[in-house]
Design goal:
Elements lengths: L5 H48 L3 H11 L3 H18 L5
Length: 93
């Protein structure tokens, strides 16, 4: 049986303690990282769900243009109405 000096025992104890602390920190970091990945995954799923239930801005604007005439179309219609009215008005001649 080999006798170990106190210094070797202390070094072994410190090494084991440091290794245990490092393992605990690694586990904590891994769990934190996994938690962040889960949160990111949830956010991505929520965004995909919203895209499926709500139209994109482009789709919304296209639908609005189909429902309501554009400003240019409204102005053209007003000009056509006014020029027709002036041409039909006998006093305008």
């Amino acid at each position: 049986m080999t006798l170990h000096s106190e210094e070797e025992i202390d070094r072994t104890t410190v090494t084991e303690d440091l290794r245990a602390e490092a393992e605990i920190k690694l586990i904590t970091i891994t769990e934190d990282f996994q938690s962040q990945v889960n949160i990111q995954s949830t956010i991505t799923e929520d965004l995909q769900s919203l895209e499926e239930t709500h139209p994109t801005i482009t789709e919304y604007l296209q639908a609005q243009e189909e429902i309501h005439p554009t400003i240019t179309e409204e102005l053209q219609a007003q000009v056509e109405i006014q020029s027709t009215t002036i041409a039909d008005d006998p006093q305008a001649k």
